[in-house]
Amino acid sequence: MISKDGYTFPEEFVWGAATSAFQIEGSVDADNRKPSIWDGFGLGARDGRNACDHFKRFASDVALMGDFGLQAYRFSISWPRVLPDGVGSPCEAGLEFYDRLVDACLERNVEPYVTLYHWDLPIALHARGGWFSRDSVEWFADYAELMVKRLSDRVSHWITINEPQVFLSHGLLTGDHAPGEKHSLGEVLQAGHHVLLAHGEAVRRIREYARKPAIVGIAPAGCINLPSTLDRANIGIARERTMGVSRKHLFNNVWWMDPVFRGSYPEQGLREYGKQAPLHLDSDFEIISEPIDFLGLNIYYGHEVAIENEKATETRDLPSGHPRTAFGWPVTPEVLYWGPTWIYDRYNVPIYITENGMSNTDWPNVEGRVEDPQRIDFLKRYLAELHKGITDGADIRGYFHWSFLDNFEWDKGCRQRFGLIHVDFETQERTPKSSAYWYRNCIQSNGYSILPED
Ligand code: GCO
């Protein structure tokens, strides 16, 4: 139990919330915006067209962020809104939208954290090979340069790429996300190499063109394995799995972080992937490992690992009554202790939790209020574990709750509600949930209020 005396998060700790362009903006046909790979894919063609109508309602949404005390807001730029063809002539109206969004944030003392790529690849670039083409490196770097030149007099914090593991795996291996293709692991790892190169080139452009000192990061999302008991052997195997590569999938941490922070793919990963490993030039890693300032971690839940009969087993099936979110994800608060702790120990770079949250079956009650005690309990438990990680030495600089608004959850449409603010997608009415009031107190007390009531 955390003692109340002197309990705080670090003085400069940043409390925020996160969204992404395609999940909230809507107005997919505004001005000269052209489609992304998500516009015509699955529920993107229906629920993504309006989403939260944020393109039109951004001013009142940012006012809500200010009312609820957010210190920072992580949002992404819609690449096809500012560069309809992905490259070439920018769309001035699209750029002006982000000018106005950033200005609204600054007016409410909400620090903007800008993600450059949150999955909405312009369809025109997909048609030219997308991430499979090594040209994607220059396409993305030119886009990054455009945005830094436009916003860096007011924006200091930049995140290049959100979750390469997820958009590459779901989009190009299993096909349940846009563009809905099924390629070989080797082909997708080659595309992943181009994504890492694009990250590095973008970092170089940010450093070259930023009009005030830029603080740059990347936000991968790998699997965190959890020890089923706290004995050394189980902790050891959980750490080994969390910091290792499985040839079965892309959802690991080190394959995507080692090139950025250590300048090479991990040896164990090269052995695991074998012939599937991407072709690359040695000079590639000079680009990919262009120094950055922080590592964003998107962490929601973990899988337990145990040693049984001297063999590590992934005990996926927690007890059937174990708390789960509306998505069916297990509530595993300790993931915010073990994940940042092990990852910080390997890379020793400042960490932001750039996403953490839960989907819930929220709706307004007969009095018109949206009560979400589960999300409040979720926050108390996860933040207590995060605090323990900080106390044990991990340099964790901030926490962005996913998400500020209920929004479009990719292949699930708008059914999975992650917001602190409820959105009625028919009327677009916003209703702060009880968790939004709780989170405001948490921010105002720099975390003190997460402590269990006496
Ligand atoms: C992700 C994405 C978000 C999701 C969120 C809930 O982590 O998958 O960054 O866009 O909406 O995580 O699944």
Kindly describe this structure.
With 454 residues, this protein is an alpha/beta fold. The chain is built from 16 helices and 13 strands. The longest helix has 25 residues, at 185-209. The radius of gyration is 21 Å and the shape is globular. The mean pLDDT is 95. It has helices at 21-24, 47-50, 54-67, 79-82, 92-107, 123-126, 136-151, 164-173, 185-209, 232-242, 254-262, 267-273, 284-288, 335-347, 373-391, 434-444, and strands at residues 14-18, 72-76, 111-117, 157-162, 215-219, 224-227, 294-298, 302-308, 311-315, 351-356, 396-402, 421-423, 430-432. Helix content is 38%, strand content 15%. Strands 1-2-3-4-5-7-10-11 form an 8-stranded parallel beta barrel, surrounded by 4 helices. The chain has a single domain, classed as Alpha-Beta Barrel (TIM Barrel), CATH 3.20.20.80. Helix 7 packs parallel to helix 9. Strand 10, helix 15 (373-391) and strand 11 (396-402) form a beta-alpha-beta unit.
Topology:
Elements: E1 14-18, H1 21-24, H2 47-50, H3 54-67, E2 72-76, H4 79-82, H5 92-107, E3 111-117, H6 123-126, H7 136-151, E4 157-162, H8 164-173, H9 185-209, E5 215-219, E6 224-227, H10 232-242, H11 254-262, H12 267-273, H13 284-288, E7 294-298, E8 302-308, E9 311-315, H14 335-347, E10 351-356, H15 373-391, E11 396-402, E12 421-423, E13 430-432, H16 434-444
Parallel strand pairs: 1-2, 1-11, 2-3, 3-4, 4-5, 5-7, 6-8, 7-10, 10-11
Antiparallel strand pairs: 8-9, 12-13
Helix pairs in contact: 3-5, 7-9, 8-9, 14-15, 15-16
The structure holds D-gluconic acid.
The site of D-gluconic acid (GCO) has 11 residues, from loops.
